[in-house]
Amino acid sequence: MQRQSKYMSLREVGRRLDIPPSTIVYYKDKFQRFIPSSGGEGRRRRYPMEALEIFRRIREMFGENWTVEQIENELALKFSGLVNNDQRDQRLTNVAGASSSGLEAVLAKISDALDDQGLFRSEIRSLRDEVRGLRDEYADMKQSMSSRVSELELRLKDAVAANERLERIVRGERSGGIAFPDSEYLERPLVIRANGEYLGVQGTGSKHFSLKDFVTLIERSASGARVVDTSWQYTSGNWVLVVKLDDSGRAVQQDIVLVTAQTVTPSGNTVTEIVRLNIDGVDAPDSLLLSLFRQVRTVFGG
Q1: For residue 37, what are the contacts with CB-CB under 8 A and spacing of at least 6?
Q2: β-pairing verdict for 190-194 and 270-279
Q3: Which residues cross the membrane (predicted)?
Q4: Which of 273, 271, 270, 251 is nearest to 261 (CA)?
Q5: Residue 216 is inside which H or E element, if any?
Q6: What are phi and psi of 221, to 5 degrees?
Q7: Which of 12, 136, 192, 195 is deepest in the core (most CB within 10 A)?
């Protein structure tokens, strides 16, 4: 097992505590009188294991938003013994080396500056690598987002096209397509016009008889022997309901064509008017429509 060194460089202190080089240098310069060290100036300076706790505590206090003055007071209280011992050792070293020339002191300061510069360069390289990685990540993310946006735009385009096709189908504008009136048209009051007046069927409460109710009555008349087939056409601004009845029990087939249109009554109400009722190629007279509505009133509960 390798024996752990008693002293370490400033770079090693920063590495062990995971403190950036520029920050560890700042701590060293700002609180130098509270941090024990040995070996003179510059790159020869080394820090004892006890200094790790001081640097760690400094980082902790800065993280808690302590002021420099508060940190100095805390260091003086907790680590004054270590500092005093180091200062005593340093004085002995200074006495032993009193004959050193001023040139050595200058060189030591230059060495110290170079050491700090080395730490800064190391941090710069690390930051450049991090920036490069972030730029690559941003480029990948941008490419991914661009592809995603293109995909969504294509899906939106397809959805719009599909919606337009459905609208054309609903309006009967597509040749051979399936036409079907919207719910608002189907649920308006269904009326006939007789002698200049609009007549409808009022059900229980405030509910009125609508084209939707008319279609429901026809479809409910289907049975095992009676087949009812309904379809819609949109012609000349009118919705046309085509009903084909096939009663195998009575050997009867019947074609009914109901032509309707949106109308506004003199009172300002928007209704669905029966313009024409054709049964097996023959237009039904108004009297038959009136009779039909009387039967509807009985069934509908008016």
Answers
A1: 45, 46, 47, 48, 51, 86
A2: parallel
A3: none
A4: 273
A5: helix 211-220
A6: -75, -10
A7: 192
50 touches 36 (CB < 8 A): yes
Check: CB of residue 43 under 8 Å from CB of residue 114: yes
Q: At residue 36, what is the residue type? A: P
CA–CA separation, 55 vs 47, rounded Å?
Answer: 11
For residue 87, how many C-alpha atoms fall within 13 Å in the half-sphere facing its CB?
A: 10
Among 246, 277, 280, 244, smallest CA distance to 261 is for 277
Is the model more confident about 255 or about 164?
A: 255
CA distance 94 to 87: 10
- Per-residue model confidence as pLDDT tens digits over 8-45: 888 899 999 999 988 999 999 999 889 988 876 656 78
Yes or no: say if 75 and 58 are a contact pair by the CB < 8 Å rule. yes
pTM for this model (two decimals) = 0.42
Give the chain's domains with CATH numbers. Answer: 7-132 (1.10.1660), 183-300 (no CATH)
Measure the CA–CA gap between 22 and 170, rounded to whole angstroms: 72
Instruction: Provide the residue type at 111 as one letter.
Output: S
Question: Tell me, what DSSP letter sits at residue 6?
Answer: S
